Amino acid sequence: MKSIPAGYENDLLTMVEILRITYYLYEFKKNRRGTAPIYCKLTTDGAERQQFSTGLYVTPDLWDKDAQCVRGTSEDAVLINRRLQDITIELKGIERRLYEADGNVSLAEIYSIYKHKTVEEHTLCGIFRERLNKMEQLVGKEYSPATLQKFREVFAHVERYIRTSYNMQDIPIRSVDYRFVKQFEEALIVQGLKAITINKIMQRVRQMVTFAFKCNYIQQDPFVEYRPLKERKRLVFLTQEELHKLEHHHFAQKRLETVKNIYLFSVYTGLAYHEAQALQPKHITKGFDGRNWITLVRQKTDREVSVPLLPQAEKLIAWFREFGSTDDYIQPRISNQKVNSYLREIADVVGIDKKLTHHTARKTFATTILLYNDVPIEVVSKLLGHSNISVTQHSYAQVLNKNISNHIGRLEKVLNK
Question: Which residues form the Tyr recombinase domain (predicted)?
Answer without folding.
Answer: 233-409
